[in-house]
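Q: I'm writing a short methods note and want an example of a predicted protein-small molecule complex. Could you take the sequence and the SMILES for zinc ion and return the bound structure as tokens? Please keep the output block clean; save any remarks for afterwards.
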Amino acid sequence: MNIKDISFEPTGDPFVDAGGMALEYIASRFPEKLLMELIEWAARIYVEKWDTKLNSVFHGSPITHPTTAMNVRIPKNMELFKNIISSKKNRGYCRYCSREDYLVDAGRDKSCLSGSGTLVNFHHSHEPGLMICAQCAVKYFFLPFSILQMGNLALLQTISARGKQYWMNKTVIENLNRIGKNTSEGILKSIYSNPENAIFRFAAEIITDNLTIEFDENLTLYYFTNFAASVDCEIYSIPSPVFRFMRLALKNCPQQWYRFVKRHYHISKSSWNYNESQWEKKGGAIAEEDYLNNKNDIHLKLLANESILPALQHFYKSEYLYAKPEMNNNMAIYYVREVLDMQKEQILLIKRIGSKIFELMEKECNYKKYLVMIEGSTRAYQLRSALIKIIKTNYRNGAEEPVVTMDEYVNFLFPDGSYWGEVRDLLLIFLYEKLHQHAINVAEVSDVELKETEDINEGA
Ligand SMILES: [Zn+2]
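A: Understood, no commentary inside the block.
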């Protein structure tokens, strides 16, 4: 078997595919090397440059086995791969790529999280490991070049060509650059130790690298370790709808997005300065590197598929109260459309109701009254009764058009299965935007300070 015999089609297994990505690229950089020479090249990096610090990837392999003398680790590894590649024992279907081939058992010495000789009940027929083909075993050996150290190890699975290129640049190519400069000392270290924040940084970088191009992505971050007895894997994912929402926000209102996310870090003994949009401690701004691994409520909610619309409502209120330039509600629209799946008709209807309410506010020169009615609705019936009062007032004022028709109310405003709180939050967001656009003095609106989200400011 040589490099040209290996199929680099995705298998769907993130670890094998990431190893394959590294192998394919490294082979292209050293076209004169045969497959066994590439394996030896990688083994030399692992042993001679990385000091065999790969225990979190391969458990008990010739490279990492603690009782194996350093000077025989490379020859033992070469012998192992010679046997794998020439094995003619078990013919069958590979569990990773499903090709028919001769198979070898991949316990934790050759693959991550896959059981081992002493945990045979992990596998269907008590095999000593996953039964895989030589191609997949070889790809797996190159996995350390395409992961990051983040406390545990991190592997990003992407589906788009752009996402793949991003991860390749960040891991494989960066590794080769460092190896070239003789500064590579182990698996690349990330500035992150918080995988929840890291996956959002990766998503934002993939988007901003490709800002003018419309594409879809679905990111999964495997945060794992294959280390001794503490084997573990946590999985974080940014599904397509959240990715599309982020792409639209970062393309059309990046400053708002970053301000919104930044506001929602947990930072102890500090305060958020609304005017400067920064975290402060004893009067001085706190740098991003000091909190980038702290919990962030927006990241956590998006990962848990919980709505961020209430947080957006608070955010837009502060944008209005602190007179941020270029305020628009695009980010909220992208969110309800892409993630909450709110129908266009419902969004337009809520917008129209918002405009009618604003007309009433202007007519009565009373902004506070209507805002309090809607903001103060903490139950569905309160919002409904507030809307009915508004419908009545509009009628009494002799308006030609009703605020909302019966059909619209039933079919579009509160359709079955929708959550009433979303209607309230979006309505308020429209109203704040109107107040901002018409430069209505804050004193006319509310004497309530922004206290709703202050509770997040405790504990890190
Ligand atoms: Zn295979």
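A: Remarks, as requested: Strands lie at 90-93, 100-106, 130-133, 148-150, 152-157, 219-225, 232-238, 271-273, 278-281, 284-285. The chain has two domains: 3-181, 243-457.
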